[in-house]
From TrEMBL:
<feature type="transmembrane region" description="Helical">
    <location>
        <begin position="50"/>
        <end position="70"/>
    </location>
</feature>
<feature type="transmembrane region" description="Helical">
    <location>
        <begin position="82"/>
        <end position="104"/>
    </location>
</feature>
<keyword id="KW-0812">Transmembrane</keyword>
<dbReference type="GO" id="GO:0005886">
    <property type="term" value="C:plasma membrane"/>
</dbReference>
<feature type="transmembrane region" description="Helical">
    <location>
        <begin position="12"/>
        <end position="30"/>
    </location>
</feature>
<feature type="transmembrane region" description="Helical">
    <location>
        <begin position="225"/>
        <end position="251"/>
    </location>
</feature>
<dbReference type="InterPro" id="IPR036458">
    <property type="entry name" value="Na:dicarbo_symporter_sf"/>
</dbReference>
<feature type="transmembrane region" description="Helical">
    <location>
        <begin position="289"/>
        <end position="306"/>
    </location>
</feature>
<feature type="transmembrane region" description="Helical">
    <location>
        <begin position="197"/>
        <end position="219"/>
    </location>
</feature>
<keyword id="KW-0813">Transport</keyword>
<keyword id="KW-0472">Membrane</keyword>
<feature type="transmembrane region" description="Helical">
    <location>
        <begin position="156"/>
        <end position="176"/>
    </location>
</feature>
<protein>
    <submittedName>
        <fullName>Glutamate/aspartate:proton symporter GltP</fullName>
    </submittedName>
</protein>
<dbReference type="Pfam" id="PF00375">
    <property type="entry name" value="SDF"/>
</dbReference>
<dbReference type="GO" id="GO:0006835">
    <property type="term" value="P:dicarboxylic acid transport"/>
</dbReference>
<dbReference type="GO" id="GO:0015293">
    <property type="term" value="F:symporter activity"/>
</dbReference>
<feature type="transmembrane region" description="Helical">
    <location>
        <begin position="358"/>
        <end position="380"/>
    </location>
</feature>
Length: 425
């Protein structure tokens, strides 16, 4: 009996089809409240499924990785190196956004009075809290007084802090800690299997998320701000190709290989505008790519707070765009001040929903832009958020490989074998 091979689309193509279908469905049901609610609920269920598995994977992988690393001096070196790398890349991203804004002047082509304003009240309270929080509040918030409270609230940094110390403690007790390592290793494998199951629903979740966005906004709403949107995406592409490519070349890495490895995750991140949606798979893929589990488990989750390159580009470009739209001239001194303020503010509130928009709210007062200015770009924030999420994901993936190689924690044989299997498939 002759066997026929069943041809199936890979996950990346399925998600892309879901994305296109969502745009079409959203356009068909524009301003239909019932259909929009259904799509929002389905999309929210998908994101909730992802969030359900993120923390168990981070805790299990990070604890096991740190326990296997076992050296607190090495951990300190890795941590310092990681934070310096993150700060350099984020600063370059902020400056790149300002350079593009100064060259192309997107705000001068806009009549601010012809734009439709949006409600931003949901972000205002968070922004006010962020403005008064300060650096000490941020640092103190890293240490959890109750780790279970941090788990229930999904606060990533306190969870990372606890997992690092739990891993070091496990390593310190030697053979007695082996049972904990074996248990958490099994937990991580189980959660990666659950991730595979959840990802099968990704095309439906993506279709619902993008469909609800288009149904609410309508495609016509994008036209007045089209130039700004295109410029933002072009700037992000320059960062991925030139800046990240240059960083990879310095460490004798091929950025294209990394991007091809995570192409499905980038499509998913774009569709959902959620970095958390791909965190479990990025940890898994970067480990298979050749980076040690300890490095990946530490660098990638930490990068979700300290290495948001796409968000940094958007924040600087949007701030300059609004200043230009209102006819506010920003001197070199004011723009340098803006860079410093964005570097500090973005670290303090990176974990809150709509963080990039909240950072803008907490920042634009320093350059004289009125608060209502942000109401005019709130409508397209979700669309730009899709692009900046891709940059964030790609930037953290590259960071894991660079830190891994710099620490001689990169398995070239494993990398070669994985890439060969990837090319064959």
């Amino acid at each position: 009996m002759k066997k026929y091979r069943v041809w199936r689309l890979n996950l990346g193509w399925q998600i892309l089809i879901g994305l296109i279908s969502g745009i079409i469905i959203g356009a068909i049901f524009y301003n239909n409240q019932a259909a929009t609610t259904v799509m929002q609920n389905i999309g929210t269920m998908f994101i909730d499924l992802i969030q359900m598995i993120v923390l168990p994977i981070v805790i299990s992988c990070l604890t096991v990785g740190i326990a296997n690393m076992g050296d607190i001096k090495k951990l300190g070196r890795v941590g310092l190196k990681t934070l310096i790398y993150f700060e350099v890349m984020t600063t370059i991203a902020i400056i790149l956004g300002l350079i593009v804004g100064n060259i192309f002047h997107p705000g001068t082509f806009i009549d601010i009075h012809q734009l439709h304003s949006q409600d931003i009240s949901q972000y205002v309270q968070t922004a006010h809290k962020a403005e008064h929080a300060g650096i000490w509040s941020t640092l103190m918030g890293i240490i959890p007084t109750n780790v279970f409270s941090s788990l229930s609230n999904g606060n990533m940094l306190p969870i990372i802090f606890f997992s690092v110390f739990f891993g070091l403690g496990t390593a310190a007790i030697g053979e007695q800690g082996r049972i904990i390592v074996d248990f958490l290793q099994a937990v991580s494998q189980v959660m990666f299997k659950v991730t595979d199951w959840v990802m099968r629903t990704a095309p439906i979740g993506v279709c619902a998320l993008i469909g609800s966005t288009v149904a609410q906004m309508g495609l016509k709403a994008l036209a007045p701000l089209g130039y700004f949107i295109v410029l933002a995406y072009a700037t992000m592409a320059i960062f991925i190709l030139a800046v990240m490519g240059g960083a990879a070349r310095i460490f004798k890495l091929n950025n294209w290989e990394i991007l091809k490895t995570i192409k499905e995750e980038m499509v998913l991140a774009f569709s959902t505008a959620s970095s958390e949606a791909v965190l479990p798979r990025i940890i898994d893929k970067m480990s298979k790519f050749g980076v040690s589990e300890g490095i990946v488990s530490f660098v990638v989750p930490t990068g979700y707070t300290f290495n948001l390159d796409g968000s940094a580009i958007y924040q600087s470009l949007a701030a300059l765009f609004l200043a230009q739209a209102y006819g506010i001239h920003l001197s070199l001194t004011k723009q340098i001040t803006l860079v410093i303020v964005l570097m500090i503010t973005s670290k303090g509130i990176a974990g809150v929903p709509g963080a990039s928009f909240v950072v803008l709210l907490a920042t634009i007062s320093t350059i004289g832009v009125p608060l209502q200015g942000l109401t005019f770009i709130a409508g397209i924030d979700r669309l730009v958020d899709m692009g900046r999420t891709v940059v964030n994901v790609a930037g953290n993936s590259l960071a894991a490989v660079i830190i891994g190689k710099s620490e001689k924690e990169f398995d070239f044989e494993k990398n070669k074998k994985y890439l060969n299997n990837l090319h064959q498939s």
